[in-house]
Amino acid sequence: MPNSTQTTRFAALALIVLALIWSYNWIVTKAVLRYIGALDFAALRCGLGAALLLALLPLTGRSLKPPPWRPVLGVGLLQSAGMTGLSQLALVAGGAGKTAVLVYIMPFWMMAFAALLLGEKPQRRQYIAAAIAACGLLLVIQPWALHGTLLSSLLAVAAGASWAAGAVIAKRAFRDHPIDLLCLTAWSMAVGAVILATLALSTHEQPIIWSAPRLLLTLAYNAVLATALAWILWLFILRTLPAGVAGLSTLMIPVMSVLQALWLLGEYPDPLEGGGIALILLALALLGAAGFWQTGRAALRRVFDRA
Fold this sequence. Notes:
This protein has twelve helices and no strands. The protein is mainly alpha-helical.
């Protein structure tokens, strides 16, 4: 069994892999939505990922018996279905980089939910970062303009809030129950797939062009890497690290997504959007610096206590 130091190192490595997978996925998913509807893609992504993980349970000697139903339903509804479905819908009209930035305001939602449900009291630096992010969010959404991407922006913000709520439910479940990581991921993803499939079948906004090779490659990337592997990595990080630090671990992803969107898709925000994105990234950086400073100081204190 690895000790706590080794587990923390594994979590740090998982952060790097997760950032690489998820930051690039915003780009490939935005490009593929011309061949398939957003909810259809979200349902297929979660369904294929759930099927893969459920097949892995008996192959790894685990039982197919679901974990406690409350966290499974909560994580499945809010994290698997909510975050995935809302973010895919946001990508239809919004740019990949902008959508990623708005979804990854998630640490601020997580900070609020963790304070309410887990008793993790925010620090003063976190309040300052939240105020800066709120100003940036106002510039990005621009509610006074009522332009075509307002709905996309609101969907992206809602996706981040849904993800944060699901993450806090998962964190509390790991604290209160001896839940297997792979089992929770598989069954919550299966719940999310059922919800998304129901919504996709009831709306079915456009025909699926199965002959497009890019669609099949993107589905494979999403099912195996961006959904099955990435959600396992995320829940491992969430189980290993405090909820606030786990939320902070996602901060590199929107930065990488914005840079990739500029480079690969030629997405250049207007001056107000650009200023808002810069403020949000500044707030995320301040939040990350505060969190990692606090974590590092606690680690040093433990070292000196042992000396």
